[in-house]
Amino acid sequence: MTKKISTKDFRSILRFLRKNFPIECPVVIKRFPKKKECDTVRFNGKVYTVYIDSSLTRQELIDTIIHFYAHIMCIDSSYNHDAEWGKKYADIYSKFLEFEIN
Ligand SMILES: [Zn+2]
């Protein structure tokens, strides 16, 4: 299914992440058309900004946001898709699935 996400839905997912997985610095998610540089995270010393392709489906967007949230949560120790990152990804995803059901 290629369903796009509504703004309301997008915001509720961000609220869920901010509430359940607080990060010391603010995390801003920006959605851009693919022509811009997407699927990266930048940190300016104060704010993490994640750039995501705005043409993604709802499911792809959720997968991508959680992917980057897991990176940010273990950014001091790892930049790779290693065990620590994988554990964070799984932790966030399982909590998110509970949130989706309820
Ligand atoms: Zn990654």
Give a written overview of the molecule:
A hairpin with a 4-residue loop joins β2 and β3. The longest helix has 19 residues, at 83-101. The two termini are 22 Å apart. This protein has 102 residues and is an alpha+beta fold. The relative contact order is 0.17. It has three helices and three strands. The protein has helices at residues 7-20, 58-73, 83-101, and strands spanning 27-32, 40-43, 48-53. The chain has one domain: Zincin-like. The protein has a three-stranded mixed beta sheet with strand order 1-3-2, with helices on one face. The structure holds zinc ion.
- Principal-axes geometry comes out as globular
CATH class value: Alpha Beta
Outline the low-pLDDT stretches: none
Strand order of the largest sheet: 1-3-2
Q: Name the CATH homologous superfamily.
A: Metalloproteases ("zincins"), catalytic domain
Q: In CATH terms, what is the architecture?
A: 2-Layer Sandwich
Strand-and-helix sequence, N→C?
HEEEHH
Count helical runs: 3
Oligomer: single chain
Number of strands: 3
Largest sheet: 3 strands, mixed
> Per CATH, what is the topology?
Zincin-like
Radius of gyration: 13 Å
- List each distinct ligand once: zinc ion
What's the overall average pLDDT, rounded?
A: 90
